Amino acid sequence: MIVLRTDRKHASNCMTEENGVEKVKKRKNFFRSLRFRILIILIILGIVPGVIVTYTMLHNYQNRAVAMLTETVGDQCDILCNLIIRENYLNDTDSEIVNSKLELFSNVYNGRILLADRDFKIVSDTFHTEEGKTLLSSLAVACLKGEETSNYDARSKVLELAVPVQSPDVQQLQGVMLVSVSAVDIAETLAEMEQRGVMLIGSIVVLSVFLAWLLSTILVKPLARVTKAIEDLTDGMLDEEISVPDYTETELITDAFNKMVNRMKILDESRQEFVSNVSHELKTPLTSISGFAEIMQGGLVKCEDIPKFAGRIYKESQRLLQLVEDVIQISQLDEEKTSYTWELVDVYQVCKNAFESLKEKAQSMNVHLYICGDSMKMEAVRTLLEEAVYNVCDNAIKYNRNDGSVSIFLTQTAHEIQIVVKDTGVGIPKEDQDRVFERFYRVDKSHSKEIGGTGLGLSIVKHAVSTLNGSIVLRSEEGSGTEITMKFLKVHKE
């Protein structure tokens, strides 16, 4: 019982861990999803303009408010300066009118006024703490140069102005008035506007999230349908092509997927056919070899007949070996990652070597071999070119008539070399001409064993010519022979 409890607990822990892993995967998938990216983009598009607009509004309001306050305070200061000049207040600070005006100004604007002569000696302070001291202010220095200066300190919420005290009749400055006024109203208004701006941005974020979710749902839904259709198709639930024409993009995706599926079906059918053909071609010689060997093993063969049976076994084994070699050859040609060495090849010599290898076979079948052309060179993969020429000539000899001929015609232009192999054989029926380059396809299946071969020769030729970036054309008339033309560029281009 203790063991059972432990196992159940372990199973429960495993389920918990699996659920945790699934949650983590879902979370990661969400952050990588199109929905999340649309969400982020819309939030950014909502927040950035909101922040810019809010900042611009606050900045513009502050500039306008400070400018208006500066203008208003400056006008009042000009009035005070005229009164100070008229009352000669810089020399006699006992003027009740000026003092009352200064106190009133200070109270109205919740500020402070420092009045100094041309020597920067403070003659009046509405706070009554700096009188008789030297005024140290960069604004005052700039003012004595004839400039009306001001400075707004947002941190301390204070606006400072330096106004020159000057008589209209006297060009020389008589003093400077340094005014500090409270800008709390401006700061409070800015703070209120900032709060409204934050609320506005928050509303924009919420609206952006909603719109992003809605928009992403609308946009992602067709993609989800595509995904579901693909999953159903791959699970074997659908036999027909998928179609999601909601958007041009989804239509393009489904079209591309359908093309891929059709291509895979063709490749699968080709693979199945290839396996079936290989199995059949392997089984035939193996059956013969097994049968002959069994007869010899059972002692049913006379001594004088043993060489005959051994010869037939040898012949079938050679046929089997040739089939295996051809299958390996065509598999290598199918492998796109195979690297080849390109070199300068003498085409005439390749054709001559092919005829030398096929000389005995041609003589046994009373077929004459001819080469028409001169030495010419091209960039090629030597082994592939040799295989192509050899297989075309071998096929021309095999399906030729008694006292027939196989001729190779070599021609060239400035950029191209043409190899034409022409025979006087049985020819190929028109209905079979489009299929002779297929694997294991034979025109005359009833005499295939007598003729020999694996049915892969022309298929190898087609693949080899294609790999060499060439082209191949077949012309044939039943009873009049066959002509195969291979065209290649002299210079290989990647």
Model description:
This protein is α+β, with helices and mostly antiparallel strands. The protein folds into 4 domains: 1-28; 88-189, PAS domain (Beta-Lactamase, 2-Layer Sandwich), CATH 3.30.450; 243-338, Orthogonal Bundle (Helix Hairpins), CATH 1.10.287; 343-489, Histidine kinase-like ATPase, C-terminal domain (Heat Shock Protein 90, 2-Layer Sandwich). The chain has 12 helices and 12 strands. The protein has helices at residues 2-31, 34-86, 96-108, 138-144, 184-234, 248-297, 306-334, 347-357, 359-364, 382-398, 448-451, 457-467, and strands spanning 112-117, 122-125, 149-153, 158-165, 175-182, 343-346, 367-372, 377-380, 404-412, 416-423, 471-477, 481-489. β9 (404-412) and β10 (416-423) form a beta hairpin. α2 (34-86) runs antiparallel to α3. The chain is rod-shaped and about 155 Å long.
Note the run of SSEs as H and E: HHHEEHEEEHHHEHHEEHEEHHEE
What coarse outline follows from CA principal-axis ratios? rod-shaped
Q: According to CATH, what is the topology of the largest domain?
A: Heat Shock Protein 90
Model regions low in confidence, pLDDT < 50 over at least 5 residues: 1-6, 445-451
CATH class of the largest domain: Alpha Beta
Give the averaged pLDDT, no decimals.
79
Structural class: alpha+beta
> Treating each run of at least 4 consecutive H or I residues as one helix, how many helices?
12
Main sheet: strands, sense, barrel: 5 strands, antiparallel
- How far is the N terminus from the C terminus? 73 Å
Spatial order of the strands forming the largest sheet: 2-1-5-4-3
**Beta-strand percentage?**
15-25%
Helical proportion? 55-70%
